[in-house]
Design a protein that fits this description.
Number of strands: 14
Distance between the termini: 39 Å
Cofactor: Zn(2+)
Radius of gyration: 32 Å
EC number: 3.4.-.-
Structural class: alpha/beta
Protein name: Peptide hydrolase
CATH architecture of the largest domain: 3-Layer(aba) Sandwich
Strand content: 15-25%
Helix content: 40-55%
Largest sheet: 8 strands, mixed
Family: Belongs to the peptidase M28 family. M28E subfamily.
CATH topology of the largest domain: Aminopeptidase
Keywords: Aminopeptidase, Hydrolase, Membrane, Metal-binding, Protease, Signal, Transmembrane, Transmembrane helix, Zinc
C-alpha cells in the first residue's frame, strides 16, 4: 500500500482495484474523483478482502410478457418529473450535510406512502457510523423463498467536487434520475402486488435499496452488503440504476450495459430483459472499477449488474457540479430504465434458483501479481544455483592453493627470507579468496 503525499488529518484507505490500495485524506479523495479515478473506501473493511462471486441459473427466456407490458404502460412521466424536481430542489444531497439528511427524510416519506399499508412490505432506515444521511431498504417479503433476495439499487446522495461542503449539487442525473427510476418502478410493482387481494405477492424476496454516500467511495452500499455477508444472506442478483436520464444523441438513443467488474451471467440475463421489454437497444460499454454501488455487491460475493444511460464515453459530463440539472434530462429515457427494473423483478420474483458454483472475478492486477510472484521465485532459485556453483569453484581453488603452498614449503630452503615470503604469500592468497567467496566477509 502506498501513501499519497501530503496525507494530513484523517487518512482513508481507498481500493483503486482489487490489488491497489492507497491512503489519502478527504481532500485527496475528491481530487481522485476529479481525475475520473473511482474507488471503494475500504477503511473499515480492509481486513475483509473480495470473495468469489456466486453463479446462479438465470432465465434464458421470458415468462411474464403480458404482465410486464401491462404494468409498463402505467409508467407516469409526469409523476417522475415532479419527484425529480423535488429531489433536485435540495441545495445539495451531500452525505455529510444537513441538506443530505433532509433529502433522505423526504425520500423516506415518499417510500412510506407507497408501502405503508402492505403487511409483508417493510421499510427500514439503515444508519451509518460517521455521517447522518441514512440508506433505506424496502423489503417485499417472499411468500415461499424469503431467503432468496433480489436487489434493485440506486444511491440518493449527490456531490459538488469543487467544494463538497459548500457548493450546491442538484444531482439531477447523478443520481436523482436513478432514484426516481426505481421509485416509479417500486410504485407500479406494489400496485401490481395489491391486485385481487395481494395475489401477486412474489415467491422470492424483492428489495429496493436507496444508498447513502455512494459519492464518498460506495460507503453506504459497502455497509449494507458487508452486513449481508456477515449475516450470510443469499442475494441472487443485484441491479444498479445510476444515471438513467441523459441522452447524448436522440437519433441513437440506447442504454449502456456495463461489462467490466460485473457478473457475466446476470449481465446476459439483463440483455434478455432489454431486448424483450425496452423500446430502445443496448450497447456494451465499460466504466472501470467501483463506478457504482454494484461494486460493493461484487466485492462481497454477490452477482450484480449495471445498466447506465448510454455508452459510457457519452454519458452526462455535467455531473458533480451545479450544472447537473433536470432540464438536461429525458424523463422518457428514465422510463425505459423503469421498464428494465420491472422486467427484471417480474422475471426473477418466482424463479427457482440453482447455485451453479462460484467464480472469482479475475483482473489483470491479480494475474500480474501471480506472474510477478512466480518470476521472483525463479530468480531466487537461479541466484541460489549461481551461488552454489561459485562456492564449489572457490573451494576447489582453495584446495589447490594448499597443495601449492605445501609443495613450496617442502622444496624451498628454510631460510628466514623464504619463510617470510611463503607466509606473506599464503596469508595474502587466503584473504583474497575469502573476500571473493560469496558470503565471505574477509
Amino acid at each position: 500500500m502506498r501513501i499519497l503525499p501530503f496525507a494530513l488529518k484523517t487518512l482513508y484507505t481507498l481500493e483503486l482495484s482489487p490489488s491497489n490500495h492507497v491512503k489519502v485524506n478527504e481532500e485527496e479523495k475528491w481530487s481522485l474523483l476529479k481525475q475520473g479515478i473511482k474507488f471503494i473506501d475500504v477503511t473499515n473493511y480492509f481486513s475483509k478482502p473480495e470473495i468469489p462471486v456466486a453463479i446462479y441459473n438465470y432465465p434464458n427466456e421470458t415468462f411474464y410478457d403480458d404482465e410486464v407490458y401491462r404494468i409498463s404502460e402505467k409508467i407516469n412521466h409526469t409523476v417522475m418529473y415532479e419527484k425529480l424536481a423535488k429531489l433536485t430542489s435540495f441545495y445539495t444531497r451531500y452525505y455529510k450535510s444537513k441538506h443530505g439528511v433532509e433529502s433522505a427524510q423526504w425520500l423516506y416519506e415518499e417510500l412510506e406512502n407507497i408501502v405503508n399499508d402492505v403487511e409483508f412490505i417493510h421499510l427500514n432506515k439503515f444508519e451509518h457510523k460517521g455521517w447522518k444521511q441514512f440508506s433505506m431498504i424496502v423489503r417485499i417479503e417472499g411468500k415461499k423463498n424469503r431467503d432468496n433476495i433480489v436487489v434493485i439499487g440506486s444511491h440518493h446522495d449527490s456531490i459538488n467536487l469543487i467544494l463538497p461542503s459548500v457548493l450546491g449539487a442538484p444531482g439531477a442525473d447523478d443520481n436523482g434520475s436513478g432514484t426516481v427510476t426505481n421509485l416509479e418502478a417500486l410504485r407500479l410493482y406494489v400496485e401490481y402486488i395489491k391486485e385481487d387481494g395481494m395475489k401477486n405477492r412474489p415467491d422470492n424476496t424483492i428489495e429496493f435499496h436507496f444508498y447513502s454516500a455512494e459519492e464518498g467511495g460506495l460507503l453506504g452500499s459497502m455497509d449494507v452488503f458487508s452486513r449481508y455477508r456477515e449475516e450470510n444472506k443469499r442475494v441472487m442478483c443485484m441491479l444498479q440504476q445510476d444515471m438513467t436520464g441523459y441522452v447524448s444523441d436522440e437519433k441513437n438513443e440506447h442504454v449502456g450495459v456495463i461489462t467490466d467488474y460485473v457478473s457475466v451471467e446476470f449481465t446476459e440475463f439483463l440483455k434478455l430483459i432489454i431486448n424483450k421489454y425496452l423500446s430502445i437497444p443496448y450497447l456494451e460499454t465499460k466504466c472501470g472499477y467501483a463506478c457504482s454501488d454494484h461494486g460493493s455487491a461484487i466485492r462481497n460475493g454477490y452477482p450484480a449488474g449495471f445498466v447506465i444511460e448510454g455508452e459510457f464515453k457519452n454519458t452526462n459530463h455535467y455531473i458533480h457540479s451545479t450544472m447537473d440539472t433536470i432540464d438536461r434530462l429525458s424523463v422518457g429515457h428514465m422510463g425505459e430504465h423503469s421498464k428494465l427494473v420491472l422486467g427484471s423483478v417480474m422475471e426473477t420474483c418466482a424463479l427457482g434458483w440453482v447455485l451453479k458454483g462460484v467464480k472469482r472475478q479475475k483482473t489483470k492486477d491479480k494475474r500480474q501479481k501471480t506472474k510477478d510472484k512466480r518470476q521472483k521465485t525463479k530468480d531466487k532459485d537461479k541466484r541460489q544455483k549461481t551461488k552454489d556453483k561459485k562456492n564449489s569453484i572457490y573451494m576447489y581453488k582453495l584446495v589447490l592453493l594448499y597443495i601449492y603452498i605445501y609443495a613450496l614449503t617442502t622444496l624451498a630452503s628454510w631460510s628466514i627470507f623464504n619463510f617470510h615470503f611463503i607466509y606473506i604469500f599464503t596469508t595474502t592468497s587466503l584473504v583474497t579468496l575469502c573476500k571473493n567467496t560469496p558470503g565471505g566477509d574477509g
